[in-house]
Each structure stands twice: as C-alpha cells, then as structure tokens.
Amino acid sequence: MLKDLGSLPAVFPMPVLMVGTYGEDGKIDVMNVAWGGICGMDKIALNLAAERKTLKNIQARKAFTVALADEAHIKEADFFGTASGNVMSDKFERTGLHAVKSSHVDAPVIEDFPLTMECRLEEIRDCFGEMRVVGTIVNVLADEKVLDGKGKVDASKLNAIMFDQFKNTYYTAGKEIAQAWRVGAEFMKK
Known about the structure:
The protein is mostly beta strands. It has helices at 53-61, 74-82, 91-95, 155-158, and strands at residues 14-15, 17-22, 28-33, 36-40, 43-48, 63-68, 99-101, 108-110, 115-127, 130-142, 162-164, 169-172, 175-179. 14% of the residues lie in helices and 39% in strands. The strands form three sheets. Strands 3-2-6-9-10-5-4 form a seven-stranded antiparallel β-sheet. It has a four-stranded antiparallel β-sheet with strand order 1-11-12-13, with no helix packed on it. It is globular.
C-alpha cells in the first residue's frame, strides 16, 4: 500500500559535489552541493542559495570546479556542507586538504578528490528562489587510481558518496557510511 508523504525532494541518490572557487581575497572556498547534476554533454547545473559565498565567488571569477566527494574524505565533504565561508575564513585550511590552481579556469582543483570537472560559468538565473548556475565543463581531471586499463573512469574505483535526503545520511554503493552534518563536526571545534 502506498502512503502519501506530501511534497518533498524525493530523489535518491543525490550527488555529493565539492564546488571549489577563489574568494575576492584569493582564498580557497569549497562548498558541498547535492542539488546539482549534468544538464548536457559538456554542461553542469548547480542550485545555490543567493547568500552563499560560493555563488558570489562564481559571479566574480566566472569559473568553478566540481569534484566528486569520495568515501576517504567523507568528514571533509560533510564539513564543507556544514561550515559557511561567510563566517569561517579558514574553512578550507581546517581540513588539511591540498589544492592547486586549475590550468583551464580561475578556480582551485582539490587534489585529494578523485575526479574534478573544471568549469567556465555560462549563466546564473533565479529559479524558484534558488540561483541556477550553469557551467561548461572545459576539462576533467582524474586520479590515475580511478582509471581502468583503457584510461576511462571506473566508477567502482571512485568510491563516490551519495546523499540520502530522506534520512540525511551518506551512502557509497548502497552502504551507509556516515551521518550527514555530524561526521565532519570535529572540524568545527578547531
């Protein structure tokens, strides 16, 4: 028997995307975004709240990176979804992750994540109270350890994590691995 649950965002799995930008001061900012996905062969769309520092950085730099979060960095990914760059100036530094400047766009590449899309901003639109950011993927970087023998990404090697909006948990390949907004809490105490 089916039960009415009302209106809710009932999509599973949701990606756990790490959106990297540079602030006006040149500091690295990373935000955990679940409301995003591919919207064309070379396009990615993200839905961000208007007050997000990441959105302001994208508007100013006209570029961003999108990395797939993996199980090895679940705490850091969760923290990036909990802490705000608007109030925590050392957000990226607290995690101990490493970044280099993209050679294709004006945004950081977080070297610790296994797959990163380097994106050029195409447009930002107000869409039902959220800001829809669309970027062109100009390059993809992948750690060699996630490639198969033909140089293609092997999803089974990514250990990418997924977000479950029903229970606010993370999964990888169907296995729950951590509680969202809690597993990265230790970084809030530094």
